[in-house]
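Hi support team,

I submitted a single chain yesterday and got back a structure, but I'm not sure I'm reading the token output correctly. Could someone confirm the output below corresponds to the sequence I sent? I've pasted both exactly as they appear in my results page.

Thanks,
R.
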Amino acid sequence: MDTKADVLVVGGGSAGLATAIRAAQHGAAVTLFEPRELGGTCVNRGCVPKKAMWLAAGLAEAQQLAVAVGFDIETGDLDWAKFITRREAYVARARTSYGDHLDALGVRVLRQPAHFVDAHTLRADGIDYRAPHVVLATGSRARTTRMPGGGLAIDSDGFFALQARPGRVGIIGGGYIAVELAGVLRALGAHVELISRSRLLAHFDADLGHALSALMQGQGIVHKQGCAVRGIGRRADGLWLDCADGELYGPYDRVISAIGRVPDVASLGVEHAGIALGEDGEVVTDKFENSSVPGVYALGDVNGKRALTPVAIAAGRKLADRLFGGEPDAHLDYACVPSVVFSHPPIGSVGCSEAAARERHGDEVRVHRARFTPMLWSLAGREGQTRMKLVCVGAEQRIIGLHGIGPGMDEMLQGFAVAVRMGARYADFLDTVAIHPTSAEEFVTMRQEPGS
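Hi R., thanks for writing in. Yes, this is the structure output for that exact sequence:
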């Protein structure tokens, strides 16, 4: 068996697949190692099944809104088992599609884990494979909790393995995974309590986290902020959380630990190749995705830059273009990357937060905000307001940050992200005729705050 290739790719998730496919399209001989399912976290235990659950939760909310505006219908619960069957069938089709594409391109796929023997040799199932280029794309895994009773909690993988909706859920964490799972479970009928040390979505613009907390609590989600959970215990009535301030929260049927993710490098044997790791265990890379060892690259979640599927795909394609496509300067620009949190309602963000902008540009920053009640919410008598925000800088008021929370924000962000990346100014937005009545029109009609 020929064990040589032009490039060895470790990991069949978003980054690895994108790299392998683009490299093969350029004519490179590619060997890809993936012991688990093709598609990685995103397809199998992340954004794809999560979005499916979010869509189902949205339909549950739509039933309630329909009744509120006058439809004569009976609301019903989701047949969890039936929906999971549909969700998993969708995921399986995606995996099959990836496999077929790799086969058509002649990519050799080995379903075993691989680890370094030296910088350009990987061993899998007792066989050594060599190539001048090695790409690490092993993704990330849920951060484990080492607190007493931590084994009583499930993580996001455990959530997707649930065969029925739990009645009472405690979620530890305040990041995007925590708020997304909280919104889904509450909309589908669970009693949800969210326990976080600090404000929600601490890495996003502060207005978004504050607004989301208020909206979630209006939906019946209990948010307990300022609690550092130090243990999980089981009693006759369920699971309980022990906080450092002495408070006990519960009882719960399920506790979900959503305290972040860490790069998945433990099985790679990077010490045999001399690859430098960062403080969180990420493979340290430069702007070209080069690791500390020539010919070894890392991208996607494993390099700790931006844990987003489109980022991993774009970085993988750029790397393959640089190595095999005759584009020596190709690399991903990580500035102005848009992101969406599939909370209820969704959040969209691109560019600088207000705090980051003021730290960088001081008094040059101007901020524009809008808040309003969406028409459907108003018709249904639902309380709550959406929020939108532009962060601008300089005399031209160039937009360097755009943020919003509200229905449809996930879909409207993409076009606005193009405008921000192209250097749009506040005046350009105001000169754009609004589409009325829509939520998106708020971005092109908002006025500057006094004193901003």
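A quick pointer for reading it: The chain is about 30% helix and 25% strand. Let us know if anything else looks off.

Best,
Support desk
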